[in-house]
């Protein structure tokens, strides 16, 4: 069942989304060589709590931290710890914020210092792939319209699309129906309705599309060929004529 949110629920999700956005803005100031991923986690955790919200990744399926920090060939779910950010890294930050039982989910990828032109393009085109998918969102459109738009944009820019991980509905749980894959056919899948809330999240690789679990923990997903990967995600409300980004400005 795909849930349709009432006006009251949408208000709560807007708030969860806004605090998510503000937390990303706070973190952005600190992403510099030398800071540890664990320090970033603490900054986000404290900021979310201070704003009377909940860091909803913490404890989700026993996930041990409040945010995911995935560097270079790490695709998603990197666990913060003692590792230091360094010049030349690309750093993806992904987390969920809960407010009165409703959740928002958003991710950004940052370039740290000197990064090659092709890796810069990976990061920028992953962000733009999200917006490409977004142009398809409105009541009456199909999930496959979003998926196809993202895939086509990625391939046009020589990037591969991670298939094992997908976007998703979001609301009273972090992960709800439907799946929102970053590949697929236009005109297929569920029909979007006013009041649905979706996490649209392209994960694109510079090399091959295949990913696997790292052997260091049971969370971090890495590219099989160790090529860099980028991630960009927002929680989006489907409206009659289009969309509203709940985790944006
Ligand atoms: N935004 C991530 C996802 O959709 C994080 C979920 S919470 C975590 O998978 F516990 F898995 F980190
Ligand atoms: Co997500």
Oligomer: single chain
Strand elements, count = 15
- Largest sheet, strands/sense/barrel: 5 strands, antiparallel
Distance between the termini: 30 Å
**Ligand inventory:** 2-amino-4-trifluoromethylsulfanyl-butyric acid, cobalt (II) ion
Element order: H for helix, E for strand: HHEEEEEHHEEEEEEEEEE
Range of helix content:
25-40%
* Mean pLDDT over the residues: 98
- How many helices? The count is 4
Strand order of the largest sheet: 8-7-9-14-15
Structural class: alpha+beta
Strand content: 25-35%
Which stretches are poorly predicted, pLDDT < 50 over at least 5 residues? Answer: none
Quick tags:
five-stranded antiparallel beta sheet, 27% helix, alpha+beta, 249 residues, binds 2-amino-4-trifluoromethylsulfanyl-butyric acid, single chain, four-stranded antiparallel beta sheet, 15 strands, 25% strand, binds cobalt (II) ion
Written overview of the protein:
The protein has 249 residues and is α+β, with helices and mostly antiparallel strands. α1 crosses α2 (37-50) and α3 (117-134) packs antiparallel against α4 (143-156). 27% of the residues lie in helices and 25% in strands. The model has no long low-confidence stretch (mean pLDDT 98). It has helices at residues 7-28, 37-50, 117-134, 143-156; strands at residues 54-55, 68-71, 74-76, 90-99, 102-111, 160-161, 167-169, 176-180, 197-200, 203-205, 211-213, 221-223, 229-231, 234-238, 243-245. 2-amino-4-trifluoromethylsulfanyl-butyric acid (MF3) binds next to β4.
């Amino acid at each position: 069942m795909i849930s349709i949110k009432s006006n009251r629920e949408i208000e709560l999700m807007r708030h969860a989304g806004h605090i998510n956005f503000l937390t990303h803005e706070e973190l952005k100031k600190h992403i510099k060589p030398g800071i540890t991923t664990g320090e970033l986690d603490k900054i986000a955790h404290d900021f979310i709590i201070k704003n009377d919200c909940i860091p909803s990744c913490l404890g989700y399926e026993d996930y041990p931290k409040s945010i995911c920090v995935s560097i270079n060939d790490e695709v998603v779910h990197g666990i913060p710890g003692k590792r230091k950010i360094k010049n030349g890294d690309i750093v993806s930050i992904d987390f969920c914020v809960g407010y009165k039982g409703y959740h928002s989910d958003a991710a950004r990828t940052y370039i740290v210092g000197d990064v090659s032109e092709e890796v810069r393009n990976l990061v920028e085109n992953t962000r733009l792939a999200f917006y490409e998918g977004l142009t398809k969102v409105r009541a009456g459109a199909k999930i496959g319209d979003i998926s196809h738009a993202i895939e086509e944009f990625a391939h046009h820019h020589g990037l591969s699309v991670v298939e094992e991980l997908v976007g998703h509905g979001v609301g009273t749980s972090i992960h709800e129906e439907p799946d929102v894959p970053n590949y697929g056919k236009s005109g297929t899948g569920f029909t979007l309705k006013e009041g649905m809330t979706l996490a649209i999240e392209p994960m694109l690789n510079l090399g091959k599309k295949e990913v696997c679990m790292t052997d260091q923990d049971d969370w971090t997903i890495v590219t099989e060929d160790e090529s860099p990967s980028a991630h960009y995600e927002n929680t989006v409300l489907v409206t009659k004529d289009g969309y509203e980004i709940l985790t944006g400005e």
